[in-house]
Amino acid sequence: MNFIFKTWLPSLIVMLLLSSCGAYMNQPLSSSPARLGEETEITDDLRRLPLPREKVVAAVYKFRDQSGQYRPAEIGANWSTAVTQGGTSILIKAMDDSGWFVPIERENVANLLNERKIIRSSRQQYEQNNAGPVLPPLLFAGIILEGGIVSYDANIVTGGAGLRYFGAGASGQYRQDRVTVYLRAISTSNGKVLKTVYTSKTILSQSVDAGLFRFVRFQRLLEAETGFTYNEPSEMAVTEAIEKAVYALVMEGLIDGLWAADPEQQKATDRQVALFKQERAEMQETQLLGRTLYDREAGASITVAASGMIYDGDYPQSRLRPGAEVGLGISLSPRFQAQLNLGTSQLAVASELYEERILYGDLNLITRILPGDRLSPYLLLGAGAILDQTNTLSAGGTGQTYLKANTGIGMEFYINDWMALDASADYHFLFTDELDDIRSGRYNDLLWRVRAGVKFFINK
Length: 460
Description:
Number of strands: 14
Strand order of the largest sheet: 7-8-9-10-11-12-13-14
CATH class of the largest domain: Alpha Beta
CATH architecture of the largest domain: 3-Layer(aba) Sandwich
Shape: elongated
CATH superfamily of the largest domain: ABC-type transport auxiliary lipoprotein component
Number of domains: 2
Strand content: 35-45%
Order of helices and strands: HHHEHEHEEEEHHEEEEEEEE
Largest sheet: 8 strands, antiparallel, barrel
Structural class: alpha+beta
């Protein structure tokens, strides 16, 4: 037993940590009582809006699911709708939380009118000739809020990872869905669409599991499993998207002068409008999956880097030697760049039988995989030449030039619009076998290079 605890207890602890402590601290071991509804991250933003100069009387007739999507099912068909059908109720609450609207009942206005008829009939019947209080007229709306949940996209991103070794392992999977909401304000005086806003919210589903299956002694099998699955409620995602739409509608109305805030809160209003404009500008550069896209204008760049060369030839036990290089790049487009590199380095082996210093130059074509991202991998392909300066094996072996071709991969990380970090690893194929003065085949002298540096953009 001591062997079991000493050997496998740490593994069990690691599996518990991999499966998240929250899954164990919140296990539904008993039923829970009813409680007030949860709030989203946007609810506080709605309540922090500046007070209006005058609330807007707004009517909502229908704000429902227009996507027509059913809940995804891995096996068979599921006829349950993917999103809630109570969008009108969610929108009315969001309007009330914002403090900018006076919502009036229009979704079930027939029930309201029928109830008012019953009130009038009852008063006429029991009061007879005595005139009772007259029912006040219904409020009429200055604007109508229309729109709906226009789409529900399932499985826009799926993936996972797993590892199992020696009977112990863990794995995880995730799936991301997306719900989209459109909201527009319509003037009741002339039917003009005053403003239209569009928001979206992703819905995350993930699962993590870990297990151990191992014979610890003869005829003694230890088996342990744990895990959890989390599905973000689609109703909460719809609520957050609708609240964001109401927030955006209020801010867009402030920008366009459709309504005004309380003059006593002008500073707070200006601050929130500025933040909203910044968010709107950032969204114009954001891709569907949430990645921020940057407009990489064509221009020149200068790269200063530290490098290292590894000789791979006829001598064994190669050593990595330091070097330095400078590069000049010309952007042909956001995706393609031509770059000229000049550098110096050393080649050496552990036995000290071969050691020399070289100068090299190459012209490469760089292809960025994600040209609009801050972090982008790239591929490079080019050709160049190597000039050896020192050769300990032959006194007259200096000054030789060898042609080469090279290819590799790299990574660029843009710090700002004028500077980026650059790192790469590439492989150099020499069209000779005379670099180390030993001919053992036709093309046996090869080089590996790693480099890391800073790229400065000019003439943008």
